[in-house]
Amino acid sequence: MAAKILIVTGDAAESLEVLYPYQRLREEGYEVHIAAPTRKKLQFVVHDFEPGFDTYTEKPGYTWPADLAFAEVDPGAYAALVIPGGRAPEYLRNDLELRKILKSFFDADKPVAQICHGPLLTASVDSLSGRRVTAYPALELDMQAAGATFQDAEAVVDGTLVSARAWPDHSAWMREFLKVLRSRVPVD
Fold this sequence. Notes:
Blueprint: E1 4-8, H1 15-28, E2 31-36, E3 41-48, E4 57-65, E5 68-69, E6 80-83, H2 88-92, H3 96-107, E7 112-115, H4 119-124, E8 132-133, H5 140-145, E9 149-150, E10 155-158, E11 161-164, H6 170-184
């Protein structure tokens, strides 16, 4: 039986940051589940850069069903965690059930991959203090406030935590995360 990996997300998550790791990890042979505040069809978004804009734009993206509600998740059943970005982490960090899930992964030192605004979630459970991370560059001050050392790089590995800036860094992010996974949780 394949090891299970959990992706935690919600509406307004970046489409590519959910679906790329979902498909890549399944391709590798892992069983992947998506959890959200409730079981429903989630509405993802696409962030892109337009000439003349000071920041990214947001457009509707793909929809995808959540397999589980956060309250239904047994963290012990999962070998690793993926935390996509987009706007979802801004409101998800207030979800008590999700914070319990996040804390259990860090307490057990299980592999965690986070990208873009995803580190807002790990910061919400005080799991970045003393660690090296990257995130969407606009979050540099947030990462420092959470006690992390921010590095502007495609992928940063700190023990079992692998972080990336945004979807253009997917290849480096998943390459590094898969190294951690293969060493800790090999595919059967």
